[in-house]
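Reopening this ticket.

The earlier resolution said the output was attached, but the attachment link was broken on my side. Pasting everything inline this time so it's all in one place.
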Amino acid sequence: ARGQPLGVDIERIDRNIDIEGLARRFYATAEADALAALPEAQRAEAFVRLWTCKEAVLKALGEGIAFGLDRVAFALDGDGVPTRLAALADEAGHPDDWQLELLEPAPGFLGALAWRGGPRTIRAFAATDA
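Inline output:
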């Protein structure tokens, strides 16, 4: 993007991780509760999708995980899909100032693209097998 800081994160879905433990440690309480309420078969995908959203915002800010994943909170729908940025640390701006695009770049991967500012058109996004 020209003159627009972006953040993007892409992760594999099929990782062997302690979803509930990591969510309770690093996510906002409402997010961890929403993930725990999902059927077990949906939790891994919902966890990874939320992780990519948080990472994308942190990268657009020029920060890393040390900023605090719990300082970037999303509202989730009944399937655990982030619908909007719900809360954000004061120094990162107002949640309504942010845009988020969910990505599914290739089978088995999820991602997110985030930026501060108005809506923009994404002209191209392609992933190829390496």
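Reporter confirms the inline version is readable. The mean pLDDT is 91. Strands lie at 7-12, 72-76, 82-88, 98-103, 109-116.
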